[in-house]
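Record minuted for everyone:
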Amino acid sequence: MTDHTKENVPIFVSHNQLNSTSINLALLEIVIQPIKNVRIQLSPEFGTYMNSNYSDEKKNLRWIYEGYVGFKPFKKRDEWIDVGVMSSPYTYEFDKSWEQPMYTRSIAPEFVPYYLLGIRYKRKLNEKFSLTTFILNGWQKLTIQRKIPSLGTQLEYVNGKNYLSWTTYQGNEKTNLQPNFGYRLFSDLSWIYSSENIKIVSCAYLGIQYRSSIAYLWGQVNLGLEYKLKKELFLNGRLEHFVDPSNIQLPQAINPSFNCSGLSVGLKYIFSENLFFRTETKVLRDNSLSGYFTKENEIQRYLPLVFIGLNLRF
């Protein structure tokens, strides 16, 4: 049964609708390669995720998941230069839930960029290592910033069942809304282990934001597991912990020192390669009673959530 009284899940932009049936993300991916060393990617999308995550962008830009042109500068090297809007390398999670062990995202990707505007240069160093460097418009911003571009990197390592990704970001975050903000430094380490029956995912990161020349930190760690019960049925779970002692990422908190832990358990049933049935039960605990979780205007320590959905792709 659908309750059309829509509310938003605090601190989330993905799967953030309460008491309603909604489309979180509908995405069309168009890939064109007119010649061997040129590629074009255009991915329009819509849904509640777009309405929330792109709320600070101009309305005519809120439909772009990816939109870039790339070219291969050398025929014999495995490397590409892409220019435009690209998906983010930060954390192992992103907005396509059908490619994730859990149906919904953890807190982690909500406070790093989901998308980037800029230039990306990716080169495969050898069979195990790849290096990507970014010149960026800023921390998830499509409107052109009139300041020195930000820099990002991603070092990827693949060895058998293991995948490691180390990413960094540095840039000046001063804006008209945040005139006291200075440089932001960020580093993230993600690990994925995949075998026939088990998939383990984990991510830890630390961010440093300079405000009035004083360094403030935020960070998180999470661990997820997916286990194949049988060919079509998977059980998954996740533990996570997120801290923002100075409310750099969560400035609207009633009380300072946001500190949140979470536990999620879910099921995935694969009807076919194009249709998944997903469930997830999530409980978040506001350890600091910051005021983000409220009911009838009273601060709550726990936020229980239940999600039921379908992933459909063609």
User: Anything to note?
Assistant: The domain at 7-312 is CATH 2.40.160.10 (Porin). Residues 1-5 have pLDDT under 50 and may be disordered.
